Amino acid sequence: MKPTLLPSRPHLGVVWAALAFVIWGVAPIYYKALRQVPAMEILMHRVIWSFLALAPLILGGRWAKEFAAALQSRTHVAALAGTAVLVSSNWFVFIWAINNDQMLQTSLGYFINPLVNMLLGRIFLGERLRPAQKVAVALAGAGVVYLSLFFGSIPHIALFLAISFGFYGLIRKVMPVGALVGLAAETLFLSLPALIYLVPLALEGRGAFWHQGWQADLLLMGTASVTALPLLLFTMGARAIQLTTLGFLQYIGPSLTFVLAVAVYREPVGQGQGVTFALIWTALAINSADSWHHWRRQRM
């Protein structure tokens, strides 16, 4: 009898998911290298090259039937058009924030995101929050309110990233469409606006592509890898490990971004940010511990 690979799959799943979050966490380095290119232009290239990278994978693989079925359903097309708007706006704000020295806000946004997901699940899916989860959401809210009062304005970048990605995840959660198929459809829908934006720039000689050197060209084309590769790794990992384990791993990304912002790019951390991050991290610790105990009780 041939040895089975099933016992090792959870370990591989952890590796795959962790790699996905590491790539997402260090992605700011990639976009910093493109800071001479306007954020909207980077976004449009990200859409085009991502679709070109995903198309052969989808059409030539086992996802072809699912992709065709998704495009034949009016409900799915409408929902994917909505998620395309959500994810593209999230990408744009993320890229803009990175290249305008607002990396700490992007980190804060993705730390808040799991708590936003819980709140959206409660509101729209009727999922009940356990007492510890209510405390975690309240602490996160207190952190945002404190930062808003400290600076006199709300952390709009962080909240936009957390809320837009939260709604994106909510819609995709209730849709019977896989992650890669969904992303391929979203980038397909966005490709026409991207071409309408990029072609005149190219014809007028104002675009970055072909005009800022081969390094910039390769980086713009490589945005497809930064988009599709971590998603593929995440999908593979999510299928092989428990949701609770995935929940712990998701903090790798914003943690790496936070370290980059402070240690490498020297973004200042004042009292307001310090207190807010402390409250958010406390909330995440409470939520993680509660999720772990809940998972153990279910197994027992």
Account of the 3D structure:
The protein has about 300 residues and is mostly helical. It has one domain (about 5-300). About 80% of the residues lie in helices and about 0% in strands. The protein contains twelve helices and no strands. The chain has helices at about 10-30, 40-60, 65-70, 75-100, 105-125, 130-150, 155-175, 180-205, 215-240, 245-250, 250-265, 270-300. It starts with 8 loop residues before the first helix and ends with a helix. Residues about 1-10 have low confidence and may be disordered.
Helix percent band = over 70%
Spatial gap, N to C terminus: 32 Å
| Largest pleated sheet | none
Kindly provide the radius of gyration, computed on alpha-carbon positions and rounded to a whole number of angstroms. Answer: 20 Å
Number of helices: 12
Which band does the percent of strand residues land in? Answer: under 5%
Structural category is mainly alpha
Q: Multimeric state of these chains?
A: single chain
Mean pLDDT rating: 88
Gross morphology: globular
Helix-strand pattern: HHHHHHHHHHHH
Low-confidence stretches: 1-8
DSSP E strands, number: 0
The overall number of domains is 1
